[in-house]
């Protein structure tokens, strides 16, 4: 009788151990998913708004949400005009963005989509299907973010991002396949992109898209093809309460010549680090990119607007911010003041550098996220009133400093 009871207890204990191991594996998988999303979506706006959650019969979870953003711009420059990026005549207020998001998870299967509407144009921002191969790894296939730089938005915390974005090296969405894996303190990303995100609905032939790509706007120029990306990031933590990541990124690709032009190529490399010291965050990144076979400038396109951009340059960027917890205030959850500087340093003669400075603060309250930025620029296309537009990231012939005040209200649902 005693032997039978002992055997029974052993079986029950083994079953309990097996159950606990299963629960532990599920918990690790959930934690890995959270870590991956946190690493990929480090902007303060990600995760805001509850949206709608629907569970299907197979146990899959569909989340539906989005955002509406309104922007006010005031520029100090003459001839600013009424365009949202100019802010002349005492300021311009306009609907900035309406976006629609879907996220889906069912066991190892993943999917993510985002479509955005702006005044006069709209485009697909994100659209991929994924599969989680283990607790720390997954694959994405479709239109997904190219792994390059310290994070999805470089090192920036501001509404404007830094100059990496405007030369296609931050928050760049392309069409292909990406593999993400974490091994100990290291995170690796490998990706192949057959082409850039393409043109959607707008007035231009090639530039109605979210992120900056090389485009043949008039039918003569170049299009990105067969791009490969690699990124390695190492997480660290000290006994003094400091933590962060540092790493390197590499990008190589082809340029398909159109309108009788011969094909070219492009490559970029970057070293970057983000350090957290208490509530302080310091981000630094230094990159170099080069487009071969295109001359000293070529055409990039985004937001339904083509711009002339330097074919090769160094891009230094630094961001310093401080998170203030204000949950003792009923009307404010937190605020994050920041200072950012970045530049496109062009080695070719006849091209003036493009510099960008931002003083700003981000305010969070429930589903609301508000950016207040005061920016100074000598060579960013979103600041300045001189005509013709579209040359500041390339030759920057005006070579003068101007400023802009930008207030962006975002409601995330």
Gap between N and C termini:
62 Å
Helix vs. strand class: mainly beta
Label the overall shape. globular
Integer tally of domains: 2
CATH class of the largest domain: Mainly Beta
Radius of gyration: 23 Å
Order of secondary-structure elements: HEEEEEEHEEEEEEEEEEEEEEE
Q: List low-confidence stretches.
A: 25-42
Number of strands: 21
What percent of residues adopt helix (DSSP H or I)? 10-25%
Strand arrangement, major sheet:
2-3-4-5-6-7-8-10-11-12-13-16-18-19-20-21
- What is the percentage of strand-forming residues? over 45%
Describe the overall structure.
The chain has 413 residues and is mainly β. The chain has helices at residues 2-40, 163-166, and strands spanning 52-55, 61-75, 92-106, 109-118, 121-134, 137-145, 173-183, 186-196, 213-214, 221-237, 242-258, 264-277, 280-292, 297-302, 305-310, 312-322, 324-329, 332-344, 354-365, 368-378, 402-412. Strands 2-3-4-5-6-7-8-10-11-12-13-16-18-19-20-21 form a 16-stranded antiparallel barrel. It has a 3-stranded antiparallel β-sheet with strand order 9-14-15, with no helix packed on it. A hairpin with a 5-residue loop joins β1 and β2. 37% of the residues are buried.
Q: Short description, anyone?
A:
With 413 residues, the protein is mainly β. The protein has helices at 2-40, 163-166, and strands at 52-55, 61-75, 92-106, 109-118, 121-134, 137-145, 173-183, 186-196, 213-214, 221-237, 242-258, 264-277, 280-292, 297-302, 305-310, 312-322, 324-329, 332-344, 354-365, 368-378, 402-412.
């Amino acid at each position: 009788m005693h032997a039978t009871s002992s055997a029974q207890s052993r079986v029950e204990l083994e079953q309990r151990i097996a159950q606990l191991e299963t629960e532990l594996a599920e918990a690790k998988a959930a934690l890995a998913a959270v870590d991956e999303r946190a690493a990929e979506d480090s902007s303060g706006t990600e995760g805001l708004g509850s949206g709608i959650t629907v569970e299907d019969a197979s146990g899959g979870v569909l989340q539906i949400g989005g955002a509406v953003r309104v922007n006010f711009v005031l520029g100090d420059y003459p001839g600013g005009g009424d365009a949202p990026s100019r802010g002349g005549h005492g300021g311009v207020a306009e609907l900035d963005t309406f976006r629609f998001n879907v996220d889906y998870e069912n066991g190892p299967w993943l999917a993510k989509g985002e479509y955005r509407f702006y005044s006069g144009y709209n485009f697909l921002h994100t659209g991929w299907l994924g599969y989680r191969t283990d607790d720390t790894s997954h694959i994405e296939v479709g239109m997904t973010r190219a792994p390059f730089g310290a994070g999805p938005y470089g090192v920036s915390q501001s509404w404007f991002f830094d100059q990496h974005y405007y030369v296609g090296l931050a928050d760049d969405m392309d069409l292909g396949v990406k593999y993400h894996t974490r091994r100990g303190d290291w995170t690796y990303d490998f990706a192949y992109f057959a082409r850039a995100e393409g043109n959607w609905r707008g007035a231009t032939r090639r530039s109605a898209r979210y992120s900056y790509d090389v485009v043949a706007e008039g039918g003569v120029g170049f299009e990105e093809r067969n791009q490969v990306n690699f990124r390695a990031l190492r997480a660290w933590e000290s006994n003094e309460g400091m933590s962060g990541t540092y790493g390197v990124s590499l990008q190589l690709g082809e340029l398909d010549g159109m309108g009788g032009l011969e094909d070219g190529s492009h490559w970029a490399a970057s070293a970057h680090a983000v350090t957290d010291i208490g509530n302080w965050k310091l981000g630094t990144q230094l990159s170099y990119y080069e487009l071969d076979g295109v001359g000293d400038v070529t055409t990039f396109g985004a937001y339904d607007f083509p711009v002339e951009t330097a074919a090769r340059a160094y891009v230094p960027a630094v961001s310093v911010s401080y998170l203030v917890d204000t949950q003792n205030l009923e009307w404010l959850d937190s605020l994050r003041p920041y200072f950012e500087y970045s530049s496109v340093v062009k080695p070719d003669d006849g091209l003036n550098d493009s510099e960008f400075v931002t003083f700003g603060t981000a305010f969070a309250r429930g589903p609301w996220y508000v950016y207040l930025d005061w920016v100074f620029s000598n060579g960013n296309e979103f600041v300045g009133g001189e005509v013709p537009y579209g040359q500041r990231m390339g030759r920057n012939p005006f070579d003068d400093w101007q400023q802009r005040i930008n207030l962006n209200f975002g409601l995330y649902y």
